Amino acid sequence: MEKKAKELMKKLSVKEVYSNSKKEFFTSFNLAVNSEGGDASKIKTYK
Questions:
Q1: β-bridge pairing 44-46 and 25-26
Q2: Burial, 45: exposed, middle or buried (Cβ in 10 Å; 0-12, 13-18, 19+)?
Q3: How many CA atoms lie within 13 A of 13 on its CB side?
Q4: pTM for this one?
């Protein structure tokens, strides 16, 4: 997951990406949390 996150950050020119338990990536923390029904503990941040 971390390798994929690094590639995505480079491609999108962003400093952070977030993933949920379904292995989906987001550039917005709020969208990632919403994808988990509001449970921020399920979100992983990659820098």
A1: unpaired
A2: exposed
A3: 0
A4: 0.91
